[in-house]
Fold this protein.
Amino acid sequence: MWVSRRGYADGMRTLLPFQRMQLDDRGLEIVLHADRPLRLTGARGRRIRCLAGCAWLTAVGLRDDVFLHADESWEICTDGLVLIEGADCAAVALDA
C-alpha cells in the first residue's frame, strides 16, 4: 500500500499504536523500531540526535520527511504532530 508523504502523519495517527512519553528538562534517549512510532507534540525547539541506525521523522506541515543517520541531528520546527520511528531500528536522543 502506498501512502503519500504529505498524508503520512495523518494516516499514522489512526492506523498504528503510538509510544507516548513526556519530555522533561533533561531530554531522553530511546530505541525506536519500525512500525512503532514515537508521537511528539508541542516539541518546537527540541533537537533530535540519531545515535545509531536510521531514524525516520515526519511532521505536520513539513513537505518532506527527514531521515537521520548516526551523528546527524534535526531541530523540531513545529508544535504540531511529529512522528519518529526507526527505519529498521534506531537509537535517538531528544534534547531539552
